[in-house]
Design brief:
The chain has helices at 3-6, 8-16, 53-68, 113-130, 150-155, 157-164, 173-197, 239-248, 257-270, 277-305, 308-326, 329-333; strands at 22-28, 32-39, 42-49, 76-77, 86-88, 93-99, 202-205, 214-216, 223-226, 233-236, 250-251, 254-255. It has 336 residues and is an alpha+beta fold. The protein folds into 2 domains: 3-99, Phosphorylase Kinase, domain 1, CATH 3.30.200.20; 113-333, Aminoglycoside 3'-phosphotransferase, Chain: A, domain 2. The strands form 4 sheets. Strands 1, 2, 3, 4, 5 and 6 form a 6-stranded antiparallel β-sheet that branches. The protein has a two-stranded antiparallel ribbon with strand order 7-10. Strands 8-9 form a two-stranded antiparallel ribbon.
Amino acid sequence: MDKEHFGLDKVVYDFFGKQEYSTKVISSGQVNNNYLVQFNGEKFVVRETSKPERNIVFESEIIKRLREKKFPTPRLLRTTKNKRFSYNNENKKKYQAFSYVEGKVLDDNEVADHLLLTIGESLGNMHNALENFMPKEKPLFEGFGHFQNISDRINAIPYIQNEILARFSLEQPKRKAIITLCEKTANEIERDIRRVIKGLPVQPIHGDYTRENILFNSDISEIAGVIDFDDAHMDPRIFDPVIASVYFGTNEREFSTKKVKKIFEGYRYAIATPLQSKEATAIQSLTEMYGLFAVFWTINKFNQSQNFEDLGKVLKYSSILESIRDTNVETWRNLI
């Protein structure tokens, strides 16, 4: 790979004082690109980002706090001049460096109950470490698909519908049914979401507790590291286990309250400050909201790629959203 193309020579030198290294792309997205950098048998992750400096400060304070509390997450490195990031004047990008975590991501198959307990417990431990912690800077999220908090997410629904659903074909009955499902869910969520989140405990949360960000050890017996606090922000703490529930608490294409119950069982076991009744009440609406956004993002990805694999994900998450909505109130009450 052409290192000069990515402008990594200066970055690697700024962080490590090295000029000879190898690199490969780990992942790429709208805001960040991640590279694995290796030299002398050592591995590091370099993140190329366009996010504001205040977000980097917020994230670094979160990571520092978590590591002080012995929560497993990669170390955020500083440059040889003790700066949080290296800046490339040519492409106007910032670069961060992290220690590398050797670990495995869970596959797309149904997650075993004992792992769901582990995931929930990990979330509880993370929230314990961040409880009553107030970083100096609050992150600023701008642009399509990036949100300051739950209220900002709800405000964006009409715009997202126009941007995404308008480009999702109405000609096929199955796609039309998905659009109808999204619109009905959005209308109902907009009516009550602010009411149910009012007064909920707010603290720093991960904001993206999904498969690719939870690395397990080689025999999948424990979590080796939780990565990517790029979406970390201030919000009701209950939102993190809700996010995990949408991505892990499923049987094939259906939302499974039995699976979700395991996540919350682990979370409640670990959390120092017990969940309040109003937090439990908010879970149903928040889960529907996040299920809706999971459908939005998969439609958006399909609109860009037009490949059948991404269409399959649209069908999967729309089916999950439908089963979330079909879960009766009594079942939600017994979830916690």
